[in-house]
Amino acid sequence: MTVITSSVETPNALTRQARYAAGKALRSHVPRISHGDWAPAADRPDPLNLLTESNQGRIEDLIPIRYGRMSRSPFNFFRGAAVIMANDLSQTPITGLKAQICGDAHLANFGIYATPERKQVFDLNDFDETLHGPWEWDVKRLAASIVIAGRQNGYTTAVNREIAIASMQAYRQMMQKLATMCHLDIWYFDINLHGIIELMNRQSRQRILKTIQTARKKTNLHTFPKMTELVEGQYRIKDEPPLIVHNQAVANMESTRGFIERYLASLPEDRKTLLSKYHLIDVAEKVVGVGSVGTICAVVLLLGNNDPQDPLFLQIKQAQASVLEPYLGSSAYTNHGHRVVVGQRLMQSASDIFLGWTRAEQADFYVRQLRDLKVSLDATTMDQKNFTSYTQACASALARAHARSGDPAQISGYMGKSDQFDLALASFAETYANQNEQDYAALLEAIKQGKIKATMDV
Question: Backbone dihedral region of 89: left (phi > 0), alpha (psi from -120 to 50 degrees) or beta?
């Protein structure tokens, strides 16, 4: 397969019109229709081998849980298979225009969370694979996830294609809007949460509003009685094996003095002052996600004033090399936790006040609050109208995220005002969804034959 690429660079000093024209000129090197073409390379690695290689450095006892979660559906498989798609995307056309990209921009990696001002916004919420790279790769992963989830929802081929096209149109039109805005306005821009809700049907609108109201109670204080217990007069995190356990390796990691010190060093002075008012109570291992299963993840309980009415839960999560690095080059940051934090701050409209990074026992980590008014919406349980609204919201949020570090004028100039790019991405998504089903079937067969061990957890 011939990969079409361009390396045109345009100085920031040029006007919007000049940069738009430069983006438009890229079409002669990388036709928009070329993004619709995809077929597995003749030397495409065995996808299961790629998954096996990605298990290196993970907690071995948890790997079967990872495979168990991936085996539940083609969409769950896709969620855990970023390493496979990274290889496939490296063979696709790129314009040469770059931005900070998520690296894993599927539908389940968007959601609602609280800004430091306690405002709930809709945005990307997972950045384990973030890197500076081709904006097209994020858009293609999102488009493929839309078709895969749509199939799981039982929509027809025609409906899935229509939804994919509409979502890509939402990305393109949002980028057009951002291309006309001042840089500061782009930086402050966020996706109107209530505008998304209004697009949904009445029953779903009421259900989501109720979910959001419930999420507003997901404070540290609300979480405390659910996640802790009193043992011999001391509060501790409840064990819920195999998902939450007191693992000696995690305890040793947390007890290393330099661990917390290095985390504090990554925070601004005001956050250090705030955290200094809390003291450590307990730490436990917690299994999260699909693709992240097997990496070290811990929950830390702290108390202020030695009072259960003033708790703080932090999540410590291991950060490994991005799956994109073999194709885009190593991260500029020697600590992958640092890479994740910088990428998150670049792409999100607002980030957690405790977001920071550290290192312990030859592993990199990032730290954030465990729960802070967060809401996750399950796209695989939505009806067609709500699914369409949700996918368009995700596409719009992705465009805003790319515009913060990339050049919306050039990207918008390249995509243009017609639907050529939208149609091409929908075609890519359909073809890649077919490939994902084949890879998923290969996983199920390997599990059936006993070549891969999978454990189904709750």
Answer: alpha
Q: What angle do CA 45, 74, 384 make, to 5 degrees?
A: 135
Positive/negative CA dihedral, 1, 82, 267, 114: positive
- CB-CB contact of 94 with 30 (8 Å): yes
Tell me 4's DSSP state. Answer: P
The 3-state DSSP class for residue 110 equals strand
Q: Please identify which residue in the block is written with the tokens 């100085």.
A: 11
Sign of CA dihedral 265, 269, 272, 276: positive
331, with CB counted inside 10 A (0-12, 13-18, 19+), is: buried
Helix/strand/coil for 243: coil
Give the pLDDT confidence of 41-73 residue by residue, as tens digits.
Answer: 999 999 999 999 999 888 888 899 999 999 999
Kindly report the pTM of this predicted structure.
0.91
Residue 279 vs residues 123, 222, 282, 302, 329: alpha-carbon distances, Å: 31, 19, 10, 5, 40
Q: Which residue in 399, 180, 145, 187 sits closest to 290, CA to CA? A: 145
> Omega into 242 within 30° of 0, i.e. cis?
yes
Tell me how far apart the alpha carbons of residues 173 and 184 are, in angstroms, rounded to a whole number. Answer: 19
